[in-house]
Prior knowledge:
alpha+beta; single chain; CATH 2.40.50.100; seven-stranded antiparallel beta sheet; 4 helices; six-stranded antiparallel beta sheet
Amino acid sequence: MGPRRRVGFGALALIGFLSAGCDSGPSPGSEAEGTPAQPTAEPVVTVDTALVRRGSILQRIAAPGSLLARRESRIGPEVRGRLAEIFVEEGDRVAAGDPLFRIDPEPYELGLRQAEAQLDRARAQRKQIRSDLERGRKLHREEVVAETQMDQLRTSLEVAAAAVREAEETVALAQRNLNQTLVRAPYEASVAARLEDEGTTALVQPQTIVIVLQETSELEAQATIPEVHFAAIRAGDAALLHVEGLPHPISAPVDSVGDAVDPATRTFLVKMRVPNAEHRLKAGVFARIEILPRAKSDVVLVPREAIRREDGRARVLAVRDGRAVAVVVQLGAISEDSVEVLHGVRTDDVIVVGEHARTLGPGMRVEPRNGAHPR
């Protein structure tokens, strides 16, 4: 009996040990065989947000610019000849009609006298033929002169009259050429340059430039503005011009806004008229230009930090259904902290601001840090 019990207990112990091993669970790697793994939870990014609102905006647009002459004229002769006199020097100011220089008039005086002599000859010939025609009419009534001779006299008178008109035009042209030997200022201006001296033979084709004039009693300020401000600036907007050396800025309204954007620089041209009656300003000087467009009221506004630019377009990240969605927006006025949105978002939309507005990828799950949620 005893030996059998020991054998039976040992067998039961072995069976129990094997049973315990089987109940200890699957071995490593057995879970991959037929049992799917649990999905990993999608990350949620906590972001700073703001609500799109309505309000007023006043922007200040600064840009580099230059002060230029309203007009610049390169003055040369209308008739060829030797420069006999030059009446101005660089830096002089001239009124409209003041003499600038003179071409030697002697050849043109001679030409005028020759033309006048030709006119006298043509008029004398016309007078003689007219007298012949009058005598011919009397003789024709007496049947002494034939009709064919009368036709010849009438034709001769017409030719003589045409010769007189041609001679009169020649005299007028000669007089004009003589008048143009004296060249005058076309408008009030400053002499920007004197390029020739007396004794030079001045040509018409190609024209010899003798004097360069600039109209400086009123200058023109020009600034190139980034295209993002295209919708904000209008003619009549106030502008301030900061010129080095002047204690105070010059106030000048916007005179014109260019219709086209330069495709190379993505800028457009804005011009302002700048009074300069005292000639304190010089054409060509640099100016820092500030444009102050009119304040706009009751417009859709977003924080400036919410705008991101990609592929030449402006976008914001709107929070919709718990995700960041990239929305293309059309911008209007821009101030230091806000931007007007003309199209793309509506009042009370929730948008991402701060660092994540520039770095967060569209489509990410987000949670507003400040508790702002879409309504």
